[in-house]
């Protein structure tokens, strides 16, 4: 690493990027080898050593205390005290610092908000601000853009450029090729714990992807035009509150037809989660209606909704999608365990479960040592394949996939996207929610953009990215179309190089 | 970017696509194996197969469940020995001149400890003197089986309460209330036992069902409170323990319950028609409760591993969010878990009055079986058959402890200390690992499995 360099670390999930960086940050001890800082070998016994050595890290999985406020989380580990020996926490100063840093880098956060109330996207932002408040020379960003909108990502890239200009070094861990090419000075590709190559940002996306996965991959979603049939899911005037009794979904109307993919785009925390949970019967609908094939399903239990032919891939697989202690086989029947052939009456049928598990592991290319292995030992991509396999292995009318490829490696993304399109082609109505705009554009036949609990516009997949991005930021459709038009006409197109490439 | 048409798109045929992906990956793997032999162990390819003996030794010294359990037992026995030595003034006094004559201290300590543990063994499992006495005709075969009979008598109720705690644990609930559930169980079983005039057989069945029902009711209360209001089951079960205990104390001295011939707090005895039959004749206390306990263990094992309800229960216990998302009613499951846990504890309580331990209610009729059940469940790693074995160990310690007290003069409380030590060592596998320098294996997972539920 050179000072003032942005070094991208590229690799599939489970390739060892995060482990390597955790060693750098002092969380893990190396078994062999050493770390050199300014030519000196460095022994890190813990994160405080690393911070002392000028290394800061933004983790992929948030390291925040859920019941603390933003300011408290940021001062955690570097508490400012006043009053001498009495040692009162100087919350006011922490708050001021937060406001200052967040304004300087354009990362808007409320210092008094409690972490657990914040959506995932904002929590990520807090993590970034937290690292920025520590005076670090080397900043490790572990998949920081996974939950940001294109605009926010753009802002972050700007932040990274200004940090670089200030002489700070950044290690940028990601598997998004567009971002890497836009920002990195040097690219190191890791596969299965080994450096398999270094590349310059000029390398083509296909080259990088091939290096990452070890074989050539298709980066675009291949699909025929949709042939939409009857409306399957109709949502009208739906109103849903979130856990804090704050309105999250505020009068949403949606229709998904058989044989089409409706993509819901939007920054995380704009009501997508609550919308899906309300459809699934996991959250009460306060007003409006949800109908499946003409039958009202709002007010139904989750079990009844699933039984009616709805497949559901929840957005947070480790919390809502899988029981990590359970075997792959058991997870494959998590919502079908009591139906023939897996269970009849009170008894389970282990043979039938094992047999179908074997089939589906092969069919969905789940890489697991055995069907009996706990699902928690699998990589993220394979865990997600288990969920997709489970939901797609029964006849469906409607398939709902929320963030179907979050934290999933390139190879698995390719596979999961293929399955989603296949499901559409056999005539299932598909609803995909993703904060990954590329994913929505790639999969969807129509795109609904959600902003502050409302569908702010429904556009075709050929709509320019800029226009969708503006919709996601809450700009009304007409204005968005206009502004996006202006931008491309005047050719200012501020650093949208990565976007265009992502579309490629 | 969007719709590209291509004839024969691979999306149309995902099975073959998956196959292709797998094949290509398999190829790269094989290629890598060929070029980088040191990567082979990771993919599990060319490592030579270890012999069975080496595998066994490796597993023995890996910190796995069995090893940690056995070593915890050893550690507890060692600490118990130290406690015996320092609590015996005569032996302790020999340590004042240990540098001059170390043999005194060592010999007296050895005699004390070995005799105490020998009596523990003789009282719990097998007494060679009784065996030789049977051979030369000075006593009957009953004396040979007496230790086993005692052990099994103490084991039976512990199996039930242990299963009760373990079942709740697997469902993510910490049932501290097995004691209270057993208390209500014993009350209803006894009332049915001496108030209802029923024919033999039916009477026993009714009494057992009454006990089970009592426990189930006492489990239902914290279950429904948890499900409906989110009230924490730990707090509520502890409180219900108090209520149950004092209810029992109050009930015993009421008219129609108290033994009319007695002035102290003891109820009328249970009719013989409602007593569990003795298995080995009238001289040995072991009764059919132990058979019911084995049956219950089997039933709980089946319920947990082979039933849809058990699947729900385990899913809710491991990840309630995922269970809910998969359509399982978490609240319903919580209630059912507590009802089943209470039912089991209630049956355990029934054993205390329908078996041979006692036939009438007294304030202490349930002893500590509910609290011991927590230890038994932890010791048995919250697995049904593990619980049964742990209960057997605790039963043996109890039975042997009685003999140790009367023959060696070591107080029965030492047995309680031993039990507590065993569980402490098991709950802290890292400690056992450090003491015996075990290789890290699954100790971390053990620890988390016990920490669950809070």
From TrEMBL, chain B:
UniProt keyword Mitochondrion present: no
CDD domains the record matches: TM_PBP1_transp_TpRbsC_like
Membrane topology designation: Multi-pass membrane protein
GO MF, any single term: transmembrane transporter activity
Residue stretches of biased makeup (Low complexity): 34-48
PANTHER family the record matches: ABC TRANSPORTER, PERMEASE PROTEIN, GUANOSINE ABC TRANSPORTER PERMEASE PROTEIN NUPP
Name of the protein: ABC transporter permease
Organism: Micromonospora globbae
